[in-house]
Amino acid sequence: MDATELVLVLNSGSSSIKYQLLEPDSGIVAASGLVERIGEDDGRIEHVADGVTTEHRGPVADHTAGLRLIFDTFAETGHDLTEQGVRAVGHRVVHGGEVFYEPTLVDDAVLASIRDLASLAPLHNPANALGIESARALLPGVAQVAVFDTAYFHDLPSAARTYAIDTKVAAAQGIRKYGFHGTSHEYVSGVAARLLDRDPGEVNQIVFHLGNGASASAIRGGRPVDTSMGLTPLEGLVMGTRSGDIDPGIIAHLMRSADMTIDQVDTLLNRQSGLVGLAGVNDFRQLQRRIDDGDEAAALAYAVYIHRLRRYLGAYLIDLGVVDAIVFTAGVGENAAQVRADALAELSPFGIIVDPVANTAKNRAARRISPEDAPVAVLVVPTNEELAIARAAARLCG
Ligand code: AMP
């Protein structure tokens, strides 16, 4: 494959960088991998190219060192990115605030704005900015494109994006529903429309992105009209380590009665809640094994998870009025047949039926799991955020 046809996609987290080198038209992946534990002594890279996995261990000081390690490992396995070049680098950026709502070519001013948005996404945007900065230094002259997780939801209807708090405070602090996982919701809803052989502009869908983070969206004719995540990715569904919706009064109560600091509450809700808070595990497969072993806490966590899913399903059914498709994606959504069956159980009066054989069939492709003649198509669509980012980056570079 000619390297100048390929796009490098980077997803820089606070202590990790995930990456893929891929051809945006075909989606063929030339290489992919992960650097983890950046900033610690026991850093690690796992790099997969041409079916061969290469692993190195050792300290990785910072994001620049992490990216250099990625480039060195590429060179070692026959892709010298600095010599051969790439068409563009696409960066996943979590928060675009009110400023960014489409893929954006990065220059100094854009990078500074991404950093400024750290107040809205303190865990994510600084790391995203570091990834961009390092890639610019290592590949000068190559277009760097930022693709924002919030962008797809920028034009949510005002009734859906507005929190019922003092408007002066909200305006001063940039408080509104932004929504996240937008690249995934947009991508899978597009694939779903094609699977139904329909124009996306004609299809109403409810999309459940159920991974370690989880979100739902209601999409009318290709445009989102509501989504479950909010100002931050904490709102909405029960997630691996995040609570999703709670009574906001809990925060004041914990600070007053349990003497917790705001950082402790933040950590509690973002890292020690959700499935891990309820059952001690955030990995869904482990949760399922515990349920099978008769663990009551795990069973309750699962029940809470499904209860929340169904509440959003009900709300979005009413929002949309007519629903053509319900779509499941991401690690849990694509793999956990039981979740799909339980989330949609006993909804045949609404035209929602899951075919148990299709639902449990071993199949990794985008597929329909409802009977052909059921009024609502229930679909499983594997997400591919890297491909969507690569395509956006390639489009922007012409
Ligand atoms: P993601 O964030 O999209 O990578 O999804 C991660 C979540 O998907 C984790 O909770 C995994 O346990 C879950 N997951 C992955 N494969 C399966 C599977 N075969 N069955 C159930 N859950 C799965």
What keywords describe this structure?
2 domains; Nucleotidyltransferase, domain 5; EC 2.7.2.1; binds adenosine monophosphate; alpha/beta; Aliphatic_acid_kin_short-chain; kinase; 398 residues; cytoplasm; 6-stranded mixed beta sheet
Describe the structure in your own words.
This protein is of the alpha/beta class and 398 residues long. It has 2 domains: 3-148, Nucleotidyltransferase, domain 5 (2-Layer Sandwich); 197-380, ATPase, nucleotide binding domain (Nucleotidyltransferase, domain 5), CATH 3.30.420. It has 16 helices and 14 strands. The protein has helices at residues 63-76, 81-84, 108-116, 125-138, 158-161, 167-173, 182-195, 249-257, 262-271, 274-279, 284-292, 296-320, 330-335, 337-343, 356-360, 385-397, and strands spanning 7-12, 16-22, 29-36, 44-49, 52-57, 88-93, 104-105, 144-148, 204-210, 214-220, 223-227, 325-329, 367-368, 377-380. The strands form 2 sheets. An 8-stranded mixed beta sheet has the order 5-4-3-2-1-6-8-7, with helices on both faces. A 6-stranded mixed beta sheet has the order 11-10-9-12-14-13, sandwiched between helices. Strand 1 and strand 2 (16-22) form a beta hairpin. The longest helix has 25 residues, at 296-320. The mean pLDDT is 96.
